[in-house]
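### Sample
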Amino acid sequence: MTERSVLVSGAGVAGLTLAYWLRRHGWATTVVERAAAPRTGGYKIDIRGAALDVVDRMGLLPQLKELTTDVRAGAIVDGCGRRVASMGGDTFGGRQGPDTEIRRGDLLRVLTDALDVDCRYGEAIATLTQDDEGVDVTFSSGRTGRYDVVVGADGLHSATRRLAFGPEERYVRPMGYQICVYRVPDTLGLDREELTYVAPGRTALAYRTAQDSGATAMFLFEGGSTGRPSVEEQRRLLAETYADDGWQVPALLAAAADAPDFYFDTMAQVHADRWSAGRVALVGDAGYAASPASGQGTSVALVGGYVLAQELAAAADHRAAFDRYERRMRPFVEANQKLGPANVRRMVLHSDRQVRMSMRMLGLLGRLPGHDRLFAAAVASIHRAATAITLDGDATAAAGARVSGGDGGTRSRR
């Protein structure tokens, strides 16, 4: 039987998960990543619901549990730094039961170490041409290759999607907000804690995890940029937006100039009628970004990579595999995408009146007995969405383990 081949574009969560499982299922798997090295840093992310089953089946859950952020408390502060409302870290982050919060960079490192595939950094798809038998690819380095299937796992601004499906404007829907994240010195003296400051049209927060020597700042604010502004333009827009704010915002802004991991983008979702075009498919944010506001982008990426690998391994024809992948994933994706718009409206309040009313209500709720349970009930929709898919049993995973000669654990590239 001829070994089938796949090219995965993007070494993010979705791409690494897909590559792991396809290799387990016996596919010749190649990953290319535009970045020069594995990505580190990034904000903290949650693994919930069906995604926990995926990492458990990969044998990675115990390792990820050891890397938990262990954020134990969260609070809303006003411009003078007074704590308006405080709650437990899990409640503040919308976590229940076995939900796990880790840093994105730690998850990527664990996934990368588990791979046994050809992973090329500093490489990207330049052109691709399909025929009835495969896909011919030219890379940015000048290399060429031919593959049975190509999968775009290269994020919100996917180049693979643009090459195979058309312009970004057809698929990316801005939500009317900007997001910025970067590491900062911990001048607040945080200890596994998150503090959030809310002003009309903008929110700023800072947190420190158990794994950090410093802290991370995040900014969410109303507005949408046209095109892709330069980093200097992004920093200028950030500074102008928060120029009159109190609390520790000025110190957080000052750290932006030297932040090596400065991330800034329009908050957006991706909506596409189809996630495949011939022998090219999309997974994760490239095909169905839910936005950071959903709190489910990482979990959707983990589940998407797993399900696509299952279907490609089970079907003799890529078209049947892609059809089955979409039928299984689309209700789950739609349930999680619905979270984004509602969540961001709660995170970024539009007017002074909304801010005052919200602060008053949070202050009252925070003084009630059992207030953590009241806050937890408000995030029940996240957990309904996180479990809105039933993964197949372990039969397919076991078949993949037999192909690779493993026992269900992981193998290191090193």
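The first helix runs from residue 13 to 24. This sample (FAD-dependent oxidoreductase) is used throughout the tutorial notebook.
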